[in-house]
Design goal:
Helices cover 17% and strands 36% of the residues. The protein is built from six helices and 13 strands. The protein has helices at 64-69, 126-129, 161-166, 184-192, 206-212, 216-221; strands at residues 8-17, 22-27, 40-43, 46-54, 57-62, 80-85, 104-114, 117-123, 137-140, 143-146, 149-150, 154-159, 177-182. The protein is globular and about 55 Å long. Mean pLDDT is 91; it is low at 197-201.
Length: 224
């Protein structure tokens, strides 16, 4: 699990592409204090596993599904990436719950400045927008941000000067793609809510239907 609070900006040193996968060599600095083989690192919001380690660089494999869902397939040597280690049990929870499992990609449609803030309008598929609420959380390229505005086919976020300096978002241009991960809470609520499942997917037995939906009867039976 991650928080969306970026620890540092790393640099892609090499990309080795397979037929449907790739391996990334990434150089960093701050994250190597306690990094070990097998640890998880969020790279632009994508949870990757450290397969090889030679401080100050690590290697991670990227499978085909990750390349389809995220922007990692477009990375090349010299590209800058947001890096965050997995949250330690005794760490501060400064952002929101981030799994590192990307829901899809968005596209920066507009960038504007307002005093010390930089605003981004990001177009996104309806399948991703459906889980967003104003003032809720969204993870953009691994960065925990607040949804400041919500439209039919886009949403707005703004960043303060520290976020602009500590992440790659301020380097983005109109038309650039970004990785998006919705807040997990909305997806779980939809799954548990009685009306979320289709008629075909609903269990036949009454007790199974009750357990499959988050109802008052189910909560009472569970002791709430």
């Amino acid at each position: 699990m991650f928080t969306g609070i970026i620890e540092e900006i790393g640099t892609v040193l090499a990309v080795r592409k397979g037929s449907r996968s790739s391996a990334l060599d990434i150089e960093g600095r701050l994250i190597f204090g306690d990094l070990k083989l097998g640890d998880s690192v969020a790279v632009n919001g994508v949870c990757l596993t450290v397969r090889a380690l030679a401080t100050p660089r690590f290697t991670a494999d990227v499978m085909a599904e990750t390349l389809r869902k995220s922007t990692l397939g477009a990375l090349g040597p010299g590209n800058r990436v947001n890096l965050e280690r997995a949250l330690p049990a005794d760490g501060r929870f400064g952002g929101h719950i981030v799994s590192g499992h990307i829901d899809g990609r968005g596209t920066i449609a507009q960038i504007r400045e307002e005093d010390n803030a930089k605003w981004f309008t990001i177009r996104a598929p309806k399948a991703i927008l459906r889980y967003m609420v104003e003032k809720g959380s969204i993870c953009v390229d691994g960065i925990s941000l607040t949804i400041a505005g919500l439209g039919q086919d886009s949403f707005d976020v703004s960043i303060i000067p520290h976020t602009a300096k500590a992440t790659t978002l301020a380097q983005k241009k109109v038309g650039d793609p970004v990785n998006l991960e919705n807040d997990l809470i909305g997806k779980y609520v939809e799954k548990l809510f009685p009306g979320a499942a289709s008629e075909q997917a609903k269990p036949e037995r009454a007790e199974e239907r009750e357990a499959a939906g988050l109802t008052e009867a189910f909560l009472a039976k569970a002791g709430f």
